[in-house]
Amino acid sequence: MMAEAQVASQQEQAEKKYIMEEKSVGEGTYGAVYRARCTVTGRTVAIKKMKPEHEDEGVPSTAIREIAVLKGADHVNIVKLLDVFCVRRKVHLVFEFIDRNLKEHMRAHSLLLTPSAVRCFQAQMLRGILFLHTHRILHRDLKPQNVLIDTALPAESLRNLKLADFGMARAFSVPIPKYTHEVVTIWYRAPEILFGTQEYALPVDMWSCGCILAGMASGQPIFQGDSEIGTIFAIFKKLGTPNEEHWADLGPLPQLQGALPDFKTTFPQWPKKEWAQIRNIQAQLLAEGVVLLDDLLRYDPAKRPSAKSASKYEYLAHTTAAAAAAAAAARAGA
Questions:
Q1: Residues of the chain where predicted confidence (pLDDT) is lower than 50
Q2: Pick the catalytic residue: 74, 99, 141, 300?
């Protein structure tokens, strides 16, 4: 009885601490997000109410993953987890409030981001991914809806983009274990996952990052399919149907079936399209940006750059220098 009374008291304190708006600001597979105000600090926060996986079970695995990842994540380009509490058997995660995601931000700008904004957002994404990968975390669900944009700050500040929604994230070890391939919204899913491999690693996040870069430049997702095979063909129609020259795993049939069981040698053969032929990608990214995009969207995961090496590409050189100058100025003023 004492334990129950203590839990009830904690729930009452939590409900008093945060005043939530009735209507959610976002709904996802794993929960709904509400805008709220902390009565202690007066700060506006976002509260994610996690959906229980089964009504008779405890804390959802997605909540445990997200808490585990974000508890130790202190980086300007990763959303901050401020508090965790449980009310009526539902886990509530309290985050810093960011007013919109990248998809909403693009819509607010008529799907036309400036070349400078695209460049700065890409630099910030890579910085956030580098932090995760350095700490042995795979995000596995990178997409515009999970990239938050703080509109109170300019993109050039390199402090207004934050990666969020770590419900599908995984800590990894070496050697990389086998994972489920049911991850990442299909438009941003790496080809090795689409072809059924269970052995994948950091390059899956880099592919998703490349898809987001292309989407920012073109104004829409570039690999839109209504199914896995539809997405595969959307990729082929732009990048060309892959062969052994592009990807070592596409070798002899026994090897192919072991590494990529869902790849078919009977797939239609499409030639590669140049980026200049795909909306305004070439004009937005220029030659330097296209080099980065091409490398992020390599079929062979072993040939995709790491977040660290991608951050050093010429396309992002001035943003890296600007970030270093801003950090130096902040240290000098401290």
A1: 2, 174-177, 179, 181, 253-254
A2: 141
